[in-house]
Amino acid sequence: MSQDIYRRVEADPAFRELKSSRNRLAVTLSVLVLGAYYGFMAIVAFAPGIFGQPLFAGSTLTLGIPVGAALIVGSWLLTGWYVRCANGQFDRLTREIVERNT
Fold this sequence. Notes:
Elements: H1 3-11, H2 13-46, H3 48-51, H4 64-101
Helix pairs in contact: 2-4
């Protein structure tokens, strides 16, 4: 890519919008996932009795198992959301920027 094309793309308001919305979504989802994992691990480390409680009387299954599984499934869903945005909105904006500036 020549310097001229690079400067045109960088000056395009749609490129700045693409860059900021992509970064905002990535940071938000990262904070959500990391916060949930660190929160889970903090509870396991500092209050193990919470997740060590049986789900119901006589159960060997503890509360930590479904909470941990929900954490994993939630992370998959958030990843899928990012992929949907990247393959839809972000790719559409990228195509428009390339067509307009090349």
